[in-house]
Amino acid sequence: MKRLLTTVAAVSVLLPALAVANPATLNHPGRLLASNCFQCHGTDGYGMEHLAGESINEIADELAEMQFESARKDIMAVHAQAYTAEEITLIADYFSKQPK
């Protein structure tokens, strides 16, 4: 009985999150990488700085530029410098596929 109640409680917490999630990107390979961005940009790209629906090239180019700005020491530059070109493309693709 205790296990059943724990399962029901866990499912009730997860259901609202799944209801608002974009089904097209639930299994997207960039979703986990983009989770580092969720604090500021939100899980759907609607945080402080909107990324949802922006072009993949625009997002990827911006991150790539940040990688090479050595004077820049803010959180975006630190994150960008940690990603490979392939990871940046996956993150950009994930956010570009969120509805605008």
From TrEMBL:
Domain Cytochrome c: from-to ranges: 17-99
Organism this protein belongs to: Thiothrix subterranea
Key words of the record: Heme, Iron, Metal-binding, Signal
Entry keyword annotation includes Signal: yes
Membrane-traversing stretches: none
GO function term, MF aspect, one: heme binding
Stretch forming the signal peptide: 1-21
Top-level division of the source organism's lineage: Bacteria
Native organism taxonomy: Bacteria, Pseudomonadati, Pseudomonadota, Gammaproteobacteria, Thiotrichales
Name of the protein this chain belongs to: Cytochrome c class I
